[in-house]
């Protein structure tokens, strides 16, 4: 059966026959990957609902490139994705989960019953350093653009890119440093010093020695210095001096760009770690709770990246399909890092949206991923 079909008249939040109510909370990569995957794997077994506070999905292939004029966000209406997955779209924000009653509660107080719930609402971010310019994927590109203008006009000669101690996914800092280096060389500003300060023992050490070696070569070729094994301690009193540990030296660089600190959703009645992130097993099931799964940045997994979120969503979708009666052996989450985002379902779906009308998509999609990535 086509994945793009006339919308079912069955209300996804009401139990009808043997159909199980599957509620997916979120509007990002993990939520949409899971929605398309569950629809494909268990479409005849489930009544799907997508709960999201957003009305659009903003996909940023390379968010760090936006200030440099090399990237932009693609926007897709969630109503269209929900229609294609034969799901009901409910606008609202998940605030709590009544695990015993299997009811999701929104911030406005709406109660939505479910048999299986997938939490993919992401994480929030907060500044780690008050004295620094905080870079975020959804931040205003013009803010960083102001720094680029200061570099071009010669007002700034030193820039520090900081990976705070509680930030594990450091790739954006290196991307920003490398692109800034290329930009200043293009401006003819050859005397600018760019330095990455990180708590890591090796640059991007989470992904292995081969990637680290390649990154070091790129940084060296671009003239970007790296100080590893250092942490910045900020004085809580003005002027909020930044002290490098363990040396005790003050960081006096005028321009400082820091990655933000991730903060988990900390949902009421769902167990979470000290930072508010949900603990799951290798199939995405929230530990100690029946019928609740999680994927993406809301999960207590150190790497916060779109490709990893999609892989977590695929593992959870297979486990949910198995739970609702589909005869399959769910595969556990085994992270594979790729330079670009790739989702088994979402990537080909986005490609179809970009290059085909609805009739053509219905003919080509056929209820399965077009490309297995």
Topology (elements, then pairings):
Blueprint: E1 20-25, H1 29-42, E2 46-52, E3 56-59, E4 74-77, H2 78-84, E5 87-91, E6 94-98, E7 103-106, E8 111-113, E9 116-119, E10 124-126, E11 133-134, H3 141-152, E12 158-163, H4 171-187, E13 193-198, H5 209-222, E14 224-227, E15 231-234, E16 242-245, E17 249-250, E18 255-258, E19 261-263, E20 292-294, H6 306-323, H7 346-355, H8 358-365
Parallel strand pairs: 1-2, 1-9, 2-5, 9-20, 11-18, 12-13, 12-18, 13-14
Antiparallel strand pairs: 3-4, 6-7, 7-8, 10-19, 15-16, 16-17
Task: Give a short summary of the structure.
The protein has 373 residues and is an alpha/beta fold. Helices cover 27% and strands 22% of the residues.
Could you explain how this protein is built, in words?
The protein has helices spanning 29-42, 78-84, 141-152, 171-187, 209-222, 306-323, 346-355, 358-365, and strands spanning 20-25, 46-52, 56-59, 74-77, 87-91, 94-98, 103-106, 111-113, 116-119, 124-126, 133-134, 158-163, 193-198, 224-227, 231-234, 242-245, 249-250, 255-258, 261-263, 292-294. With 373 residues, the protein is an alpha/beta fold. It folds into two domains: 20-123 and 264-365, FAD/NAD(P)-binding domain (3-Layer(bba) Sandwich); 126-261, 3-Layer(bba) Sandwich (FAD/NAD(P)-binding domain), CATH 3.50.50.60. The strands form six sheets. The chain has a five-stranded parallel β-sheet with strand order 5-2-1-9-20, covered by helices on one side. Strand 6 (94-98) and strand 7 (103-106) form a beta hairpin.
